[in-house]
Amino acid sequence: MIRRRPVLSLLTLAAVVFLLFPIVVVVGVALSRGDVLTFPPSGLSLRWFGEALTYQPFTDSLVTSAVVAAAATVIALAVGVPATYAVHRRSPRGRRLLQTVFLSPLIVPELVLGFALFQLFLVRAGFDALAALIIGHSVLLLPYAVRVTGASLEQADPALEEAAAGLGAGPVRTFFGVTLPVIAPGIVSATILSLLTSFNNVPMSLLLTSRSVQTLPVAMLEYVQTSFTPMIAAVSTLLLLLTIGVALVTERLVGFQRVFGRSAP
Amino acid sequence: MRSRLATVALLLPAVVLVLVGFVYPYLTMLVAPAANPHPDVPGALVNAVTDPYVVDIVARTVRVAGMATVLSVAFGFPVAWAISRASARWRGALLLAVTFPLLLSTVVRSFAWIVLLGRDGLLSKALWAVGITSGPTQLLYTEFAMVLGLTQLFMPLLVLTAYSSLAGLDPTIEEAARGMGARGGAVFARVVLPLALPGTAVGAILVFAGCMTAYTTPSLLGGTRNRTLATLLYQEANTSLDWSAVSALAIIMTLLVLLVTMAMTRISAIGARR
Hints:
The complex is a heterodimer of chains A (265) and B (274).
Chain A: H1 6-30, H2 47-54, H3 56-89, H4 95-103, H5 110-124, H6 129-155, H7 158-166, H8 171-200, H9 203-207, H10 216-226, H11 231-253, H12 256-260
Helix pairs in contact in A: 1-11, 2-11, 3-6, 3-8, 3-10, 5-6, 6-8, 7-8, 8-11
Chain B: H1 2-31, H2 41-50, H3 52-84, H4 88-99, H5 106-117, H6 122-130, H7 143-167, H8 171-179, H9 184-213, H10 216-222, H11 229-239, H12 243-273
Helix pairs in contact in B: 2-12, 3-7, 3-9, 5-7, 5-10, 7-9, 7-10, 8-9, 9-12, 11-12
Protein backbone atom coordinates (compact mmCIF):
# COMPACT_ATOMS: atom_id res chain seq x y z
CA MET A 1 0.00 0.00 0.00
CA ILE A 2 2.79 2.38 0.88
CA ARG A 3 4.51 1.90 -2.43
CA ARG A 4 1.36 2.15 -4.49
CA ARG A 5 -0.08 5.27 -2.91
CA PRO A 6 2.74 7.35 -1.45
CA VAL A 7 0.78 10.56 -1.00
CA LEU A 8 -2.08 8.90 0.80
CA SER A 9 0.30 6.97 3.01
CA LEU A 10 2.14 10.14 3.91
CA LEU A 11 -1.11 11.86 4.74
CA THR A 12 -2.20 8.95 6.91
CA LEU A 13 1.12 8.99 8.72
CA ALA A 14 0.80 12.74 9.29
CA ALA A 15 -2.71 12.27 10.65
CA VAL A 16 -1.63 9.53 13.04
CA VAL A 17 1.26 11.67 14.27
CA PHE A 18 -1.15 14.59 14.70
CA LEU A 19 -3.46 12.44 16.79
CA LEU A 20 -0.86 10.66 18.90
CA PHE A 21 1.89 13.26 19.30
CA PRO A 22 0.07 14.98 22.20
CA ILE A 23 0.38 11.75 24.19
CA VAL A 24 4.13 11.87 23.70
CA VAL A 25 4.14 15.48 24.86
CA VAL A 26 2.15 14.70 27.98
CA VAL A 27 4.46 11.86 28.98
CA GLY A 28 7.51 13.94 28.19
CA VAL A 29 6.37 16.85 30.36
CA ALA A 30 5.43 14.42 33.15
CA LEU A 31 9.05 13.32 33.29
CA SER A 32 10.39 16.87 33.62
CA ARG A 33 12.75 17.67 36.39
CA GLY A 34 12.03 21.40 36.51
CA ASP A 35 8.92 23.38 37.36
CA VAL A 36 8.28 24.81 33.93
CA LEU A 37 6.01 23.40 31.24
CA THR A 38 8.37 22.80 28.36
CA PHE A 39 8.68 20.17 25.73
CA PRO A 40 11.10 18.59 25.20
CA PRO A 41 11.73 18.53 28.96
CA SER A 42 15.00 19.82 30.34
CA GLY A 43 16.14 16.99 32.54
CA LEU A 44 14.27 13.87 33.57
CA SER A 45 12.82 12.94 36.91
CA LEU A 46 9.94 11.05 38.45
CA ARG A 47 9.27 13.63 41.13
CA TRP A 48 6.02 14.89 39.66
CA PHE A 49 4.51 11.41 39.85
CA GLY A 50 5.19 11.38 43.55
CA GLU A 51 3.65 14.81 43.96
CA ALA A 52 0.61 13.84 41.91
CA LEU A 53 -0.04 10.72 43.98
CA THR A 54 0.03 12.71 47.21
CA TYR A 55 -1.87 15.79 46.07
CA GLN A 56 -5.10 15.55 47.98
CA PRO A 57 -7.51 17.18 45.52
CA PHE A 58 -6.41 14.60 42.98
CA THR A 59 -6.64 11.57 45.23
CA ASP A 60 -9.99 12.66 46.69
CA SER A 61 -11.47 13.39 43.29
CA LEU A 62 -10.14 10.07 41.98
CA VAL A 63 -12.22 8.28 44.61
CA THR A 64 -15.24 10.42 43.74
CA SER A 65 -14.87 9.68 40.04
CA ALA A 66 -14.53 5.95 40.69
CA VAL A 67 -17.58 5.87 42.95
CA VAL A 68 -19.70 7.87 40.52
CA ALA A 69 -18.60 5.79 37.54
CA ALA A 70 -19.31 2.51 39.29
CA ALA A 71 -22.68 3.61 40.69
CA ALA A 72 -23.86 5.22 37.48
CA THR A 73 -22.82 2.21 35.40
CA VAL A 74 -24.66 -0.19 37.71
CA ILE A 75 -27.79 1.96 37.61
CA ALA A 76 -27.68 2.51 33.86
CA LEU A 77 -27.33 -1.23 33.22
CA ALA A 78 -29.79 -2.34 35.90
CA VAL A 79 -32.34 0.00 34.42
CA GLY A 80 -31.32 -0.19 30.78
CA VAL A 81 -30.89 -3.93 30.17
CA PRO A 82 -34.45 -4.87 31.23
CA ALA A 83 -35.78 -1.96 29.23
CA THR A 84 -33.82 -2.98 26.14
CA TYR A 85 -34.98 -6.54 26.58
CA ALA A 86 -38.57 -5.39 26.81
CA VAL A 87 -38.24 -3.24 23.69
CA HIS A 88 -36.59 -5.90 21.58
CA ARG A 89 -38.29 -9.06 22.76
CA ARG A 90 -41.69 -8.10 24.05
CA SER A 91 -42.89 -5.79 21.28
CA PRO A 92 -44.52 -3.14 23.42
CA ARG A 93 -46.65 -0.52 21.79
CA GLY A 94 -44.80 2.65 20.91
CA ARG A 95 -41.51 0.85 20.44
CA ARG A 96 -39.90 3.60 18.43
CA LEU A 97 -41.04 6.24 20.87
CA LEU A 98 -39.49 4.30 23.73
CA GLN A 99 -36.22 3.97 21.85
CA THR A 100 -36.20 7.71 21.29
CA VAL A 101 -36.94 8.37 24.94
CA PHE A 102 -34.07 6.19 26.08
CA LEU A 103 -31.63 7.80 23.66
CA SER A 104 -32.87 11.35 24.23
CA PRO A 105 -30.19 12.46 26.73
CA LEU A 106 -27.75 12.41 23.83
CA ILE A 107 -29.46 15.29 22.05
CA VAL A 108 -28.92 17.86 24.73
CA PRO A 109 -25.48 19.43 25.29
CA GLU A 110 -24.01 17.90 28.43
CA LEU A 111 -23.16 21.27 29.89
CA VAL A 112 -26.80 22.31 29.60
CA LEU A 113 -28.00 19.13 31.28
CA GLY A 114 -25.40 19.68 33.98
CA PHE A 115 -26.76 23.15 34.62
CA ALA A 116 -30.35 21.86 34.67
CA LEU A 117 -29.42 19.24 37.26
CA PHE A 118 -27.39 21.80 39.20
CA GLN A 119 -30.20 24.31 39.58
CA LEU A 120 -32.79 21.67 40.43
CA PHE A 121 -30.98 19.16 42.59
CA LEU A 122 -28.18 21.16 44.14
CA VAL A 123 -29.76 24.55 44.59
CA ARG A 124 -33.48 24.04 44.92
CA ALA A 125 -33.64 20.52 46.37
CA GLY A 126 -30.43 20.72 48.38
CA PHE A 127 -29.12 17.32 47.32
CA ASP A 128 -25.54 16.38 47.96
CA ALA A 129 -23.32 16.90 44.93
CA LEU A 130 -22.46 13.21 44.91
CA ALA A 131 -26.11 12.22 44.56
CA ALA A 132 -26.60 14.73 41.76
CA LEU A 133 -23.48 13.42 40.02
CA ILE A 134 -24.71 9.84 40.20
CA ILE A 135 -28.14 10.77 38.86
CA GLY A 136 -26.65 12.85 36.07
CA HIS A 137 -24.13 10.23 35.04
CA SER A 138 -26.77 7.49 35.11
CA VAL A 139 -28.89 9.51 32.71
CA LEU A 140 -25.84 10.12 30.55
CA LEU A 141 -24.90 6.44 30.43
CA LEU A 142 -28.39 5.06 29.79
CA PRO A 143 -28.27 5.66 26.02
CA TYR A 144 -24.96 3.79 25.82
CA ALA A 145 -26.31 0.86 27.82
CA VAL A 146 -29.47 0.69 25.73
CA ARG A 147 -27.71 1.11 22.40
CA VAL A 148 -24.93 -1.42 22.97
CA THR A 149 -27.01 -4.16 24.59
CA GLY A 150 -29.75 -3.49 22.03
CA ALA A 151 -27.35 -4.20 19.21
CA SER A 152 -26.32 -7.39 20.95
CA LEU A 153 -29.95 -8.45 21.37
CA GLU A 154 -30.76 -7.70 17.77
CA GLN A 155 -27.95 -9.93 16.61
CA ALA A 156 -29.00 -12.74 18.92
CA ASP A 157 -31.31 -15.27 17.38
CA PRO A 158 -34.73 -15.26 19.05
CA ALA A 159 -35.13 -18.85 17.92
CA LEU A 160 -32.85 -19.85 20.79
CA GLU A 161 -35.26 -18.41 23.30
CA GLU A 162 -38.24 -19.88 21.52
CA ALA A 163 -36.55 -23.25 21.65
CA ALA A 164 -36.03 -22.91 25.38
CA ALA A 165 -39.65 -21.94 25.84
CA GLY A 166 -40.68 -24.86 23.69
CA LEU A 167 -38.73 -27.16 25.97
CA GLY A 168 -40.75 -25.90 28.94
CA ALA A 169 -38.60 -23.13 30.42
CA GLY A 170 -40.48 -20.16 31.88
CA PRO A 171 -39.62 -16.60 30.81
CA VAL A 172 -37.36 -15.95 33.80
CA ARG A 173 -35.44 -19.19 33.29
CA THR A 174 -35.14 -18.41 29.59
CA PHE A 175 -33.83 -14.95 30.29
CA PHE A 176 -31.15 -16.04 32.73
CA GLY A 177 -30.32 -19.29 31.01
CA VAL A 178 -30.38 -18.32 27.34
CA THR A 179 -30.72 -14.57 26.73
CA LEU A 180 -28.28 -13.28 29.30
CA PRO A 181 -25.36 -15.51 28.27
CA VAL A 182 -25.95 -14.56 24.65
CA ILE A 183 -25.91 -10.83 25.29
CA ALA A 184 -23.15 -11.10 27.89
CA PRO A 185 -20.51 -9.65 25.53
CA GLY A 186 -22.84 -6.74 24.87
CA ILE A 187 -23.26 -6.14 28.57
CA VAL A 188 -19.51 -6.31 29.14
CA SER A 189 -18.97 -3.85 26.30
CA ALA A 190 -21.60 -1.53 27.70
CA THR A 191 -20.01 -1.75 31.16
CA ILE A 192 -16.54 -0.84 29.96
CA LEU A 193 -17.83 1.93 27.72
CA SER A 194 -19.98 3.35 30.51
CA LEU A 195 -17.23 3.27 33.13
CA LEU A 196 -14.86 5.05 30.81
CA THR A 197 -17.40 7.62 29.62
CA SER A 198 -18.38 8.47 33.16
CA PHE A 199 -14.81 8.62 34.43
CA ASN A 200 -13.68 10.98 31.67
CA ASN A 201 -16.76 13.18 31.67
CA VAL A 202 -16.19 16.91 32.04
CA PRO A 203 -19.10 19.13 30.92
CA MET A 204 -21.83 17.58 33.04
CA SER A 205 -19.64 17.20 36.08
CA LEU A 206 -18.38 20.79 35.95
CA LEU A 207 -21.23 22.35 37.85
CA LEU A 208 -22.05 19.38 40.05
CA THR A 209 -19.41 20.07 42.64
CA SER A 210 -19.29 21.06 46.28
CA ARG A 211 -16.54 21.85 48.74
CA SER A 212 -15.79 18.17 49.25
CA VAL A 213 -17.07 16.64 46.04
CA GLN A 214 -15.45 16.91 42.65
CA THR A 215 -14.65 14.47 39.86
CA LEU A 216 -11.06 13.96 38.77
CA PRO A 217 -11.25 15.63 35.33
CA VAL A 218 -12.85 18.68 36.93
CA ALA A 219 -10.11 18.80 39.57
CA MET A 220 -7.52 18.51 36.83
CA LEU A 221 -9.13 21.28 34.81
CA GLU A 222 -9.14 23.54 37.81
CA TYR A 223 -5.48 22.81 38.43
CA VAL A 224 -4.43 23.48 34.84
CA GLN A 225 -6.15 26.83 34.87
CA THR A 226 -4.41 28.03 38.02
CA SER A 227 -1.07 26.28 38.29
CA PHE A 228 1.38 25.74 35.48
CA THR A 229 3.48 22.86 36.73
CA PRO A 230 4.13 19.45 35.20
CA MET A 231 2.11 17.76 37.94
CA ILE A 232 -0.94 17.72 35.70
CA ALA A 233 1.08 15.88 33.08
CA ALA A 234 2.01 13.28 35.67
CA VAL A 235 -1.64 12.70 36.57
CA SER A 236 -2.47 12.53 32.87
CA THR A 237 0.26 9.95 32.32
CA LEU A 238 -1.06 7.83 35.17
CA LEU A 239 -4.52 8.02 33.66
CA LEU A 240 -3.02 7.12 30.30
CA LEU A 241 -1.49 3.98 31.80
CA LEU A 242 -4.82 3.13 33.39
CA THR A 243 -6.56 3.59 30.05
CA ILE A 244 -4.06 1.35 28.29
CA GLY A 245 -4.82 -1.25 30.95
CA VAL A 246 -8.54 -0.89 30.27
CA ALA A 247 -7.92 -1.21 26.53
CA LEU A 248 -5.93 -4.41 27.05
CA VAL A 249 -8.61 -5.90 29.31
CA THR A 250 -11.25 -4.96 26.76
CA GLU A 251 -9.32 -6.63 23.98
CA ARG A 252 -9.00 -9.75 26.12
CA LEU A 253 -12.65 -9.89 27.11
CA VAL A 254 -14.67 -8.86 24.06
CA GLY A 255 -12.30 -7.29 21.56
CA PHE A 256 -11.25 -3.66 21.47
CA GLN A 257 -12.89 -2.75 18.18
CA ARG A 258 -16.18 -4.20 19.26
CA VAL A 259 -16.51 -1.74 22.12
CA PHE A 260 -14.71 1.35 20.88
CA GLY A 261 -14.57 0.75 17.16
CA ARG A 262 -17.98 2.12 16.45
CA SER A 263 -18.36 5.85 16.42
CA ALA A 264 -19.81 7.28 19.60
CA PRO A 265 -23.59 7.08 19.74
CA MET B 1 -52.45 -9.44 31.11
CA ARG B 2 -49.60 -10.60 33.31
CA SER B 3 -47.31 -10.38 30.35
CA ARG B 4 -48.27 -6.76 29.77
CA LEU B 5 -47.64 -5.94 33.41
CA ALA B 6 -44.25 -7.59 33.24
CA THR B 7 -43.36 -5.54 30.17
CA VAL B 8 -44.32 -2.34 31.89
CA ALA B 9 -42.31 -3.34 34.95
CA LEU B 10 -39.27 -3.90 32.77
CA LEU B 11 -39.62 -0.54 31.07
CA LEU B 12 -40.68 1.57 34.00
CA PRO B 13 -37.37 2.17 35.82
CA ALA B 14 -35.68 3.41 32.67
CA VAL B 15 -38.55 5.73 31.90
CA VAL B 16 -38.53 7.05 35.45
CA LEU B 17 -34.79 7.71 35.25
CA VAL B 18 -35.18 9.69 32.06
CA LEU B 19 -38.10 11.67 33.46
CA VAL B 20 -36.55 12.43 36.84
CA GLY B 21 -32.96 12.90 35.74
CA PHE B 22 -33.48 14.58 32.41
CA VAL B 23 -36.94 15.80 31.44
CA TYR B 24 -37.99 17.32 34.73
CA PRO B 25 -34.74 19.19 35.46
CA TYR B 26 -34.73 20.44 31.90
CA LEU B 27 -38.29 21.74 32.13
CA THR B 28 -37.66 23.56 35.40
CA MET B 29 -34.55 25.12 33.92
CA LEU B 30 -36.51 26.36 30.93
CA VAL B 31 -39.40 27.78 32.87
CA ALA B 32 -38.39 28.59 36.41
CA PRO B 33 -34.74 28.15 37.28
CA ALA B 34 -34.02 27.83 40.97
CA ALA B 35 -32.86 30.62 43.26
CA ASN B 36 -34.74 33.16 41.22
CA PRO B 37 -37.61 34.95 42.99
CA HIS B 38 -38.98 36.28 39.71
CA PRO B 39 -37.73 34.08 36.91
CA ASP B 40 -38.16 35.58 33.49
CA VAL B 41 -36.63 33.25 30.98
CA PRO B 42 -38.40 34.62 27.87
CA GLY B 43 -37.25 38.12 28.74
CA ALA B 44 -33.71 36.95 29.34
CA LEU B 45 -33.85 35.12 26.03
CA VAL B 46 -34.74 38.30 24.17
CA ASN B 47 -31.98 40.14 25.99
CA ALA B 48 -29.42 37.51 25.11
CA VAL B 49 -30.35 37.30 21.45
CA THR B 50 -30.09 41.06 21.00
CA ASP B 51 -26.91 41.44 23.02
CA PRO B 52 -23.98 42.03 20.63
CA TYR B 53 -21.60 40.39 23.11
CA VAL B 54 -23.59 37.17 23.01
CA VAL B 55 -24.08 37.32 19.25
CA ASP B 56 -20.33 37.75 18.84
CA ILE B 57 -19.72 34.69 20.99
CA VAL B 58 -22.28 32.62 19.09
CA ALA B 59 -20.59 33.65 15.82
CA ARG B 60 -17.24 32.59 17.18
CA THR B 61 -18.63 29.26 18.39
CA VAL B 62 -20.09 28.48 14.95
CA ARG B 63 -16.98 29.72 13.16
CA VAL B 64 -14.57 27.64 15.21
CA ALA B 65 -16.80 24.57 15.05
CA GLY B 66 -17.16 24.98 11.31
CA MET B 67 -13.45 25.24 10.67
CA ALA B 68 -12.68 22.27 12.88
CA THR B 69 -15.33 20.23 11.06
CA VAL B 70 -13.99 21.18 7.63
CA LEU B 71 -10.45 20.23 8.67
CA SER B 72 -11.64 16.99 10.23
CA VAL B 73 -13.40 16.00 7.02
CA ALA B 74 -10.63 17.22 4.70
CA PHE B 75 -7.97 15.18 6.48
CA GLY B 76 -10.12 12.51 8.08
CA PHE B 77 -11.84 11.24 4.97
CA PRO B 78 -8.65 10.44 3.01
CA VAL B 79 -7.30 8.70 6.11
CA ALA B 80 -10.49 6.64 6.41
CA TRP B 81 -10.19 5.79 2.73
CA ALA B 82 -6.56 4.74 3.19
CA ILE B 83 -7.44 2.55 6.17
CA SER B 84 -10.28 0.88 4.32
CA ARG B 85 -7.93 -0.05 1.49
CA ALA B 86 -5.02 -1.11 3.69
CA SER B 87 -4.01 -4.66 4.43
CA ALA B 88 -5.58 -6.31 7.46
CA ARG B 89 -2.49 -5.89 9.61
CA TRP B 90 -2.15 -2.17 8.90
CA ARG B 91 -5.89 -1.67 9.24
CA GLY B 92 -5.96 -3.00 12.80
CA ALA B 93 -3.01 -0.90 13.88
CA LEU B 94 -4.31 2.26 12.21
CA LEU B 95 -7.78 1.86 13.66
CA LEU B 96 -6.27 1.37 17.09
CA ALA B 97 -4.13 4.48 16.66
CA VAL B 98 -7.15 6.52 15.65
CA THR B 99 -9.52 5.10 18.27
CA PHE B 100 -7.25 5.12 21.31
CA PRO B 101 -7.27 8.92 21.86
CA LEU B 102 -11.06 8.71 22.22
CA LEU B 103 -10.57 6.79 25.45
CA LEU B 104 -8.73 9.66 27.11
CA SER B 105 -10.33 12.58 28.86
CA THR B 106 -10.49 15.90 27.03
CA VAL B 107 -8.29 17.53 29.65
CA VAL B 108 -5.48 15.10 28.91
CA ARG B 109 -5.92 15.49 25.17
CA SER B 110 -5.95 19.28 25.16
CA PHE B 111 -3.12 19.73 27.64
CA ALA B 112 -0.39 19.04 25.13
CA TRP B 113 -1.41 22.08 23.07
CA ILE B 114 -0.85 24.33 26.06
CA VAL B 115 2.77 23.21 26.08
CA LEU B 116 3.21 23.31 22.32
CA LEU B 117 1.51 26.59 21.51
CA GLY B 118 2.82 28.87 24.25
CA ARG B 119 5.28 31.69 23.66
CA ASP B 120 8.21 29.40 24.36
CA GLY B 121 6.57 26.34 22.87
CA LEU B 122 7.79 24.14 20.06
CA LEU B 123 5.59 25.67 17.38
CA SER B 124 6.63 29.22 18.19
CA LYS B 125 10.28 28.22 18.10
CA ALA B 126 9.80 26.34 14.85
CA LEU B 127 8.14 29.31 13.15
CA TRP B 128 10.96 31.55 14.38
CA ALA B 129 13.64 29.12 13.18
CA VAL B 130 12.11 28.84 9.71
CA GLY B 131 11.83 32.61 9.47
CA ILE B 132 8.06 33.02 9.29
CA THR B 133 8.12 35.02 12.49
CA SER B 134 10.78 37.31 13.91
CA GLY B 135 10.49 36.26 17.51
CA PRO B 136 8.50 34.15 19.94
CA THR B 137 4.75 34.30 19.29
CA GLN B 138 1.89 33.49 21.59
CA LEU B 139 -0.28 31.02 19.70
CA LEU B 140 -2.25 30.00 22.74
CA TYR B 141 -5.54 31.70 23.62
CA THR B 142 -6.39 32.23 19.98
CA GLU B 143 -9.10 30.87 17.71
CA PHE B 144 -6.33 29.10 15.81
CA ALA B 145 -5.43 27.15 18.95
CA MET B 146 -9.07 26.24 19.56
CA VAL B 147 -9.53 25.01 15.98
CA LEU B 148 -6.36 22.90 16.25
CA GLY B 149 -7.43 21.41 19.55
CA LEU B 150 -10.98 20.68 18.42
CA THR B 151 -9.83 19.16 15.14
CA GLN B 152 -7.51 16.84 17.01
CA LEU B 153 -10.28 16.00 19.45
CA PHE B 154 -12.93 15.12 16.89
CA MET B 155 -11.08 13.90 13.85
CA PRO B 156 -11.04 10.28 15.10
CA LEU B 157 -14.81 10.41 15.21
CA LEU B 158 -14.99 11.39 11.58
CA VAL B 159 -12.40 8.82 10.55
CA LEU B 160 -14.38 6.08 12.25
CA THR B 161 -17.77 7.03 10.78
CA ALA B 162 -16.31 7.52 7.30
CA TYR B 163 -14.41 4.26 7.63
CA SER B 164 -17.48 2.24 8.56
CA SER B 165 -19.22 3.76 5.54
CA LEU B 166 -16.30 3.01 3.21
CA ALA B 167 -15.67 -0.45 4.62
CA GLY B 168 -19.24 -1.37 3.78
CA LEU B 169 -18.75 -0.57 0.12
CA ASP B 170 -18.53 -3.50 -2.24
CA PRO B 171 -15.12 -3.38 -3.95
CA THR B 172 -16.58 -5.10 -7.00
CA ILE B 173 -18.49 -1.90 -7.75
CA GLU B 174 -15.22 -0.05 -8.22
CA GLU B 175 -13.82 -2.91 -10.28
CA ALA B 176 -16.90 -2.79 -12.46
CA ALA B 177 -16.46 0.95 -13.00
CA ARG B 178 -12.82 0.48 -13.87
CA GLY B 179 -13.76 -2.41 -16.12
CA MET B 180 -16.03 -0.04 -18.00
CA GLY B 181 -13.13 2.27 -18.63
CA ALA B 182 -13.24 4.88 -15.85
CA ARG B 183 -9.91 6.21 -14.58
CA GLY B 184 -8.94 6.15 -10.90
CA GLY B 185 -9.95 9.73 -10.18
CA ALA B 186 -13.30 9.35 -11.89
CA VAL B 187 -13.98 6.11 -10.03
CA PHE B 188 -13.36 7.86 -6.76
CA ALA B 189 -15.43 10.93 -7.53
CA ARG B 190 -18.33 9.25 -9.28
CA VAL B 191 -18.62 5.93 -7.47
CA VAL B 192 -16.94 5.90 -4.07
CA LEU B 193 -17.66 9.42 -2.90
CA PRO B 194 -21.43 9.43 -3.43
CA LEU B 195 -21.78 6.07 -1.73
CA ALA B 196 -19.64 7.04 1.24
CA LEU B 197 -21.21 10.48 1.58
CA PRO B 198 -24.17 9.68 3.85
CA GLY B 199 -21.99 7.96 6.44
CA THR B 200 -19.39 10.71 6.30
CA ALA B 201 -22.09 13.35 6.59
CA VAL B 202 -23.32 11.74 9.79
CA GLY B 203 -19.78 11.90 11.09
CA ALA B 204 -19.50 15.57 10.12
CA ILE B 205 -22.72 16.35 11.95
CA LEU B 206 -21.46 14.60 15.08
CA VAL B 207 -18.19 16.51 14.86
CA PHE B 208 -19.89 19.86 14.38
CA ALA B 209 -22.32 19.32 17.24
CA GLY B 210 -19.49 18.16 19.45
CA CYS B 211 -17.35 21.20 18.63
CA MET B 212 -20.21 23.55 19.31
CA THR B 213 -20.86 22.16 22.75
CA ALA B 214 -17.27 21.43 23.77
CA TYR B 215 -16.09 23.05 26.97
CA THR B 216 -12.63 21.86 27.95
CA THR B 217 -10.76 22.68 24.75
CA PRO B 218 -12.14 26.21 24.25
CA SER B 219 -11.60 26.89 27.93
CA LEU B 220 -7.98 25.75 27.97
CA LEU B 221 -6.95 26.94 24.54
CA GLY B 222 -9.16 29.95 23.94
CA GLY B 223 -8.97 31.65 27.27
CA THR B 224 -11.18 34.43 28.54
CA ARG B 225 -10.73 36.59 25.47
CA ASN B 226 -12.13 33.96 23.11
CA ARG B 227 -15.26 32.73 24.74
CA THR B 228 -17.58 30.22 23.15
CA LEU B 229 -21.17 29.54 24.17
CA ALA B 230 -20.05 26.73 26.42
CA THR B 231 -17.44 28.72 28.33
CA LEU B 232 -19.78 31.69 28.56
CA LEU B 233 -22.53 29.48 29.94
CA TYR B 234 -20.24 28.07 32.57
CA GLN B 235 -18.93 31.47 33.60
CA GLU B 236 -22.42 32.90 33.92
CA ALA B 237 -23.64 29.87 35.85
CA ASN B 238 -20.84 30.37 38.33
CA THR B 239 -20.88 34.13 38.73
CA SER B 240 -24.19 35.55 37.61
CA LEU B 241 -27.04 36.07 40.05
CA ASP B 242 -29.59 36.09 37.25
CA TRP B 243 -30.19 32.50 36.37
CA SER B 244 -32.86 33.31 33.87
CA ALA B 245 -29.99 34.65 31.79
CA VAL B 246 -28.11 31.37 32.16
CA SER B 247 -31.23 29.43 31.19
CA ALA B 248 -31.54 31.66 28.14
CA LEU B 249 -27.99 30.80 27.09
CA ALA B 250 -28.70 27.12 27.66
CA ILE B 251 -31.77 27.34 25.43
CA ILE B 252 -29.82 29.13 22.72
CA MET B 253 -27.15 26.46 22.82
CA THR B 254 -29.63 23.58 22.66
CA LEU B 255 -31.66 25.12 19.84
CA LEU B 256 -28.54 25.99 17.87
CA VAL B 257 -27.25 22.43 18.02
CA LEU B 258 -30.67 21.00 17.13
CA LEU B 259 -31.12 23.41 14.22
CA VAL B 260 -27.70 22.78 12.77
CA THR B 261 -28.09 19.02 13.18
CA MET B 262 -31.45 19.05 11.42
CA ALA B 263 -30.19 21.33 8.64
CA MET B 264 -27.14 19.20 8.00
CA THR B 265 -29.22 16.03 8.06
CA ARG B 266 -31.58 17.56 5.52
CA ILE B 267 -28.72 18.66 3.26
CA SER B 268 -26.98 15.30 3.38
CA ALA B 269 -30.27 13.55 2.59
CA ILE B 270 -30.67 15.71 -0.51
CA GLY B 271 -27.11 14.98 -1.52
CA ALA B 272 -27.60 11.26 -1.03
CA ARG B 273 -30.72 11.21 -3.14
CA ARG B 274 -28.89 12.75 -6.07
